[in-house]
Design a protein that fits this description.
six-stranded mixed beta sheet; five-stranded parallel beta sheet; HAD_sf; hydrolase; hydrolase activity; Cof-type HAD-IIB family hydrolase; HAD-like_sf
Length: 269
């Protein structure tokens, strides 16, 4: 393989894909990503994570300095810690959707991610430490301002089942998906996806879908994997991901992204 055949853009999900189950990025993966960038490819993280969960990975963002976060709602400058572009949920639409979900599923718990703040209902079961400035309030207060994501948690339904129940309730007003969390569905503004923001970012770099490879493991990765010229699902991925992708990569705990990049960017002999 010569440099002319290298993918010009490498897009990867984080949790369950690039990141190991213990929350770390291995030295092998870091080396493979940096080698791909030295060879001339643009590398971009495309994740459901909020902006604050990207700062420890700033060494991976390359010269462009940006990542796609909140399932495509925010194009974020990781180095400067500022949003570049946002597509947020209109407060009136968000509240309408929340009320519709709770009317059908009264046990749901809501939280929100804004570009600069996290908020949750008092009853929300947060599986991660809350930021010090967390807004704890009723859902109408949480959605008084535009949100990047509305998080819907249910104490007993699995994510696939919860998504199946929520989707017909929200219709086309918003986009509902999940990233493999336990009993969690993530809602974005209508038309927002990892693929949509990735396509916009690629256009700014003069790169086409055909010149892009993408890695993912969960339902929210499906649009991105379908858009990319070549797609890789991790061996640990959701069955719908494995049914869609061109190739299966080793699992995230086996450094699957690194294994693929090492093969693609191996020196010509």
């Amino acid at each position: 393989m010569t440099a002319s055949y290298y993918p010009r853009l490498i897009a990867t999900d984080l949790d369950g894909t690039l990141v190991r189950s213990d929350g770390t990025v291995s030295a092998r993966t870091r080396a493979a990503v940096l080698a791909a960038q030295r060879a001339g490819s643009v590398f971009v993280m495309v994740t459901a994570r909020p902006p604050r969960w990207l700062h420890d990975l700033s060494y991976l963002v390359g010269d462009h300095g940006v990542a796609i976060v909140a399932n495509g709602a925010i194009l974020y400058n990781v180095v400067d810690r500022t949003p570049i572009r946002t597509r947020l949920i209109d407060p009136a639409v968000g509240l309408e959707v929340a009320y519709a979900i709770r009317a059908e599923l009264p046990d749901v718990q809501f939280a929100i991610e804004r570009p600069d703040r996290y908020g949750q209902e008092p009853v929300y079961l947060n599986r991660w430490p809350k930021p010090d400035d967390t807004l704890i309030a009723a859902v109408d207060v949480l959605l008084a301002e535009p949100a990047a994501k509305l998080l819907v948690r249910h104490p007993s339904l699995q994510s696939d089942e919860l998504l199946a129940r929520v989707t017909p309730l929200v219709g086309q007003r918003v986009t509902a998906s999940h990233s493999g969390g336990h009993g969690l569905v993530e809602i974005s503004a209508s038309g927002v996806s990892k693929a949509a923001m990735l396509a916009d970012f690629a256009a700014t770099q003069g790169i086409s879908a055909a010149e892009t490879i993408a890695f993912g493991d969960s339902i929210n990765d499906l649009p991105m994997l379908a858009w990319a010229g070549r797609s890789y699902g991790m061996a640990n991925a959701h069955p719908e991901v494995l049914a869609l992708v061109d190739e299966t990569a080793p699992a995230n705990d086996e450094d699957g992204v690194a294994a693929v990049l090492e093969e693609l960017f191996q020196p010509v002999k």
